[in-house]
Amino acid sequence: MKTISSYEQLDKLGRTRLSSNFFMRDFLYSEIAAWHQLRNIPDHPEVAIEAGQMLCMQLLEPLQATFGRIEIRSAYRSPAVNEFGNKNGLNCGSTESNYGAHIWDYRDSARQELGAMACVVVPWFADRMEQGHPWTEMAWWIHDHLPYSTLQFFASGAFNIGWQQTPQRTIRSTVAPHKLTAPEMANHTGNHANEYLEFPPLRAS
Predict the structure, then answer these.
(1) What is the mean pLDDT of the chain?
(2) How many C-beta atoms surround the C-beta of residue 14 within 10 A?
(3) Does the pLDDT of residue 205 top 90, yes or no?
(4) Residue 1: inside a domain, yes or no?
(5) Angle at 109 between CA 182 and CA 61, to 5 degrees
(6) Which of 50, 56, 144, 180 fits as disulfide partner to 171, beta carbons 3.0 to 4.6 Å?
(7) How many CB atoms neighbour CB 101 within 10 A?
(8) Which of 136, 125, 122 is nearest to 173 (CA)?
């Protein structure tokens, strides 16, 4: 698919199926772009599709199969949208740090690897957090069951979940503990089932 230069091409991109339950259109909406009248369209659609397919098949489909419908809060960002969000304090990291993350169609600037990220809410877990359960439950469940690269949790219960060709396997949060695990930490290996009691088993998508 060539660079998007017409409505018809954008419509075709939006209809591109990334996995059983997700289409590219699900990931293109941006409140920043909508409010500030910016185009949130990939420069390299084929790269964005390839990365998005892996994010959906490897991470989002298993999450939804196990916990029920998930809500996409923020996913693909064009470099221009991300740059605007970063410069204006709209909760966007630097554009360079988002290559291979929220910016799906550019490879990670440090490792030159394909990657994609989405910020999601799992209603099943959001309800659990409202009952007083810690965010670390979902973090450890994902760590033990899914081939994620990076996770970042927020106080609201939403979290960034990223896929990359070579997973980094790091978990961070805006609330304590700010760094839950990473490959160099003693708690990284082994089974953590005691950290997420009453969670359902992984279900095939």
Answers:
(1) 96
(2) 14
(3) no
(4) no
(5) 60
(6) 180
(7) 24
(8) 136
Q: Is residue 144 part of a domain?
A: yes
Query: What order of strands is seen across the sheet that includes strand 159-164?
Result: 71-74, 115-121, 159-164, 150-153, 170-173, 179-181
pLDDT over 70 percentage in the chain: 100
Does residue 52 surpass a pLDDT of 80? yes
Q: Is residue 2 part of a domain?
A: no
Burial status of residue 113 (CB atoms within 10 A of its CB: 0-12, 13-18, 19 or more): middle
CA distance 94 to 58: 26
* Predicted local distance difference test score (pLDDT) of residue 1: 64
Q: C-alpha distances in angstroms, 161 versus 9, 116, 117, 145?
A: 28, 9, 6, 13
What's the pTM value of the predicted model, to 2 decimals? 0.95
Does residue 109 surpass a pLDDT of 90? no
By C-alpha distance, which of 136, 124, 126, 128 is closest to 203? 124
Rounded average pLDDT over 115-142: 97
The residue segments making up the domain with residue 161 are 10-195
Counting the structural domains of the chain, the total is 1
In a domain, residue 107? The reply is: yes
User: Measured between alpha carbons, how far is residue 14 from residues 28, 29, 148, 174 in Å?
Assistant: 8, 10, 25, 32
